[in-house]
Design a protein that fits this description.
Blueprint (H helix, E strand, L loop, with lengths): L4 E6 L10 E8 L5 E10 L7 E9 L5 E9 L4 E2 L5 E12 L4 E9 L7 E8 L1
Antiparallel strand pairs: 1-9, 2-8, 3-7, 3-9, 4-5, 4-8, 6-7
């Protein structure tokens, strides 16, 4: 069974702007298993968006870089505690990270600034 990896970063809740890049490193040791990659978000009750426009770039261990625009469609909101909610947006299904080593995921907010987001991350499972 392949392990799940979750990497997260804090976001300024007063506004995630287009110049704020979130960077996540995933150390891959399994180059054959298929996995699902998702973007997760943590937010407060003032955040009402259901779609978030992003630019996602992935750099492989041998330095190849792939970049694309991606609209994260948030799934069901789950109450994480009294103040925060979490939601996950699928990014890739059945993806194979075919090289062992560190993959770098960078996520940049496209479009207008967002308020009420407190954190975001990448999960592979």
């Amino acid at each position: 069974m392949r392990p799940e990896t979750v990497r997260t970063a804090d976001i300024d809740p007063l506004g995630w702007g287009v110049r704020d890049t979130l960077r996540f490193e995933v150390d891959n040791r399994d180059s054959v298993s298929r996995r699902d990659i998702s973007v997760l978000f943590r937010f407060d009750g003032t955040f009402a968006e259901r779609r978030i426009a992003l630019t996602v770039s992935v750099t492989t261990p041998d330095s190849l870089r792939y970049e694309e625009n991606f609209t994260a469609v948030l799934g069901d909101r789950i109450k994480a505690n009294n103040d925060f909610y979490e939601a996950v947006a699928p990014y890739r299904s059945d993806a194979v990270l075919s090289q062992c080593g560190v993959y770098i995921f960078e996520v940049v907010k496209a479009g207008e600034e967002l308020r009420g987001l407190w954190g975001a991350g990448i999960t592979t499972e």
